[in-house]
Amino acid sequence: MEKGYYIKRIVRSIISIFIVITVVFILVYSLVPRDRIFNADDTIVKLGGKPDERQLYKMRTWQRLGYLTFESMSSYCSLTYEVGSDDIVACNTAGSKDEANFVEKYTNEGYTIEYLPVSGSPIAYKERAIISRVLEWFGQLIQIDNKNFVENTYGVEIEERVYFGRTPTGGLALKCDGCEHKYLLYTDLSFPFIHQNVLSLHLGQSYPTFDSLQVLNVITDSQGQENRKDTIFEDGHTEVSSLKMTSCRYKPNLDKLDRNRFADNYADCVIQKKSPSMMGTSFIMGVIALILAYGIGLPVGLAMAKSKSGVVDKIGMVYIIFMISVPSLAYIYFFKFIGSTVFGLPSAFPTYGSEDIRSWILPCISLALPSISSLMLWTRRYMVDQMNSDYVKFAKSKGLNQGEIYRKHIFRNAIIPIAQGIPSSLAGCLTGAIITEQVYSVGGMGKMLPDSINSYNNAMIIALAFIYTTISIVAVFAGDIIITWIDPRISLASKEEGR
Amino acid sequence: MENNKNELFTFAEFDESKSEHIEAPRYSYWKSVWRTFVRNKFTVAVCIFMLIVVVFSMIQPIFSQYDPMYMPNINDATLKFLGPSSQHLFGTDNFGRDVFDACWAGAKNSLIIGFVCTLINMILGVVIGAIWGFSKKMDRWMIEIYNVISNVPFLLLAMVLSYVLGSGFRSLIFIMCVTNWIYVAYFIRTQVMIIRDREYNLASRCLGTSTWTMITKNILPYLISVIMTYTAREIPANISYEVFLSFLGLGLGQQNASLGRMISQYTTYMNAYPHLFWIPVSILAVISISLYIVGQALADASDPRTHR
């Protein structure tokens, strides 16, 4: 029964994610004027004096981003005639008879024909249905590395094999020739010790900011200065470099430097940088804030419940009312002001960078403050509710001492709903960081959403929507599983039935 | 013995008409709410203060006719960054605009949005939630819709929607209402489910009371204090969201005065001209704290258990 419930719940979660992404797709790609994506694109400005090329550039970009399929005269000509022949030159000349064929061919295929403003040569485009784009997005979402990758993608025949070997630093590895990545599985000394390159998420291509990068790489690659250190290369020689050997991917065309460094074509490696990635930064901050919140909020909430309507309780209530009623923006600035003037802490993250611990203090505290207040509130509420219940009166009348009742009876019951919230508050720290990261200019993931909205980076918006939705769904699910561990009386499945 | 008894008791005359009256003090719910609310002098003071602030922020912009796009002093360096004085109570900003007028115009917009959104959300939420709690057929559908909506972080949705709809007064109200009513409805649903199977409701149903009368006469009056508590929390939360979205440049547009936008614009002058930054922040804080305190006091007063 329990198992069936989990399966149902997982299916339902996946459907939810699908619906959310579809809705966001429809909102972003059909309601936002598509010309706006060029607002942050420099190329458009450079092409200002050349209306034809500008139009072609726009069309190509829209095609790349999936808005439409597009055909121009030049692509038509190179398909119909041999490259380098006189026919192709004649075909590309404005007013040629091929233009009529072009227009006829694509009109029959349902394309819309437009003419370039200066040369007058025709272009054809067809809108793509949103739902097919959503399906394509989900179809491409999970990519599995296989040993035919190089042949299928670049048409290069190499000897394909998967074998066990060692990484340059000596860890065990499952290596592959013919896959996209050289190392499919490998071990090293950094967390979580076993890494994989087999499965990867493809969340789309970033544009116009972080142009032509994969969205996921933008979020997960390390940032800042290059981290140059002695690196052992594949063939055994050591060199000062920032490349990460275990991340190397197939590169079809090697330059001279690559040939000197690498024995084979796996030369497209990730450059390691000193600061953690956007996701990493947000995650570290979220975890520290969470530890702070539970480390402070729980004990204070307990103390408040113990001294109900005493001094501690009243001071705590003032703090809670302050945090609930004052807009988050106001108190974040308030604490930033206190922290930077009274304690001399840096008011902006980049002042000292991610390596200096002082940069982390204020953002983490601001992130933890609202969680502390709500934890205090709910811990107190649950404790007080339990204190008035019959089993406590019974325990008291049986002569148990106060401390024992608190620790062994009230706390164990009051902690259940609080434990359920732990994963959700971790997720909340990740999403709630939007404002904190903005105020302290932290290079984290929270800042990405407003930034990508302001720069019309649609692919990034979709990807972030996916990440945030997935995180919150997983968090709620994890919370439910945790309470069944803590309290065996709770059964998720029967709770569902009972309603 | 006989004498003592006579001193303590006197004979009363027998009056048959008196037995027809019920000798309980008259109880009027709203009068009791009012009496309980007035009993606490602190909340009454805060309430008067709040009313003054609200009325002032509604009236002041009518006289000042403040328009953020109107910048007559933009080229006059002598009128920029003035400190507080009798002519400009809160000084002037980087475009030579009067901060006092700007603050109250912004406060007016924040308050209107906070109240309107709360009103829409509460009405939709309470009505739908009450029916939702009663109808099992509706529950199956609504719970699925709720699962989908509650899985989307609100900020994400608000930001995507304001990106799509553009900034402005109406789109902001739409954004803040489009999904938030379902949380109110879910909350009310759970409350209704808890009390719909209580004995008095079972009895009522046995006697043939219609569902509508059950909801409006048996259940909603029971929930008034809960609804009030929720409302008291909702108004500052909505103001906070407005400020936050405007801070990110997604809420109200350039043409509307907004405290959030002011705060985000004036952060750069935090060290050089601190009054520019701290005045809007404190006005915001004062407004929402007083609204919250009054709301909580009203919620407490509307709970019949606190009545004496």
What are the SSEs and their pairings?
The complex is a heterodimer of chains A (499) and B (308).
Chain A: H1 2-31, H2 42-46, H3 51-65, E1 68-72, H4 73-80, H5 86-92, H6 97-108, E2 112-115, E3 122-127, H7 130-141, E4 142-144, H8 149-154, E5 161-166, E6 172-177, E7 183-187, E8 194-196, E9 199-201, H9 215-220, E10 223-226, E11 229-232, E12 238-241, E13 243-250, H10 256-261, E14 266-271, E15 273-275, H11 278-306, H12 311-325, H13 328-341, H14 357-387, H15 390-397, H16 402-440, H17 448-454, H18 458-486, H19 492-498
Antiparallel strand pairs in A: 1-3, 2-3, 4-9, 5-6, 6-7, 7-8, 10-15, 11-12, 13-14
Chain B: H1 2-8, H2 29-39, H3 41-64, H4 99-134, H5 136-151, H6 154-165, H7 169-178, H8 180-196, H9 199-206, H10 211-247, H11 259-266, H12 274-301
Could you walk me through the main structural features you see in this protein, from its secondary elements to its overall organization?
The complex is a heterodimer of chains A (about 500) and B (about 300). Chain A has about 500 residues and is of the alpha+beta class. The relative contact order of chain A is 0.09. In chain A, helix 11 packs antiparallel against helix 12. The radius of gyration of chain A is 29 Å and the shape is elongated. Chain A folds into 3 domains: about 35-130, no CATH class; about 140-200 and about 230-270, no CATH class; about 280-499, MetI-like (MetI-like fold, Orthogonal Bundle), CATH 1.10.3720. The two termini of chain A are about 15 Å apart. Chain A is built from 19 helices and 15 strands. In chain A, the strands form 6 sheets. Chain A has a 4-stranded antiparallel sheet, with no helix packed on it. A 3-stranded antiparallel sheet of chain A has the order 1-3-2. In chain A, strands 4-9 form a two-stranded antiparallel ribbon. With about 300 residues, chain B is an all-alpha fold. Chain B has a domain at about 100-290: Orthogonal Bundle (MetI-like fold), CATH 1.10.3720.10. Helices cover about 70% and strands about 0% of the residues of chain B. Chain B contains 12 helices and no strands. Chain B has helices at about 1-10, 30-40, 40-65, 100-135, 135-150, 155-165, 170-180, 180-195, 200-205, 210-245, 260-265, 275-300. Chain B starts with a helix and ends in a 7-residue tail after the last helix. At the A-B interface, helix 1, helix 12, helix 13, helix 16 and helix 17 of A face helix 5, helix 6, helix 10 and helix 12 of B.
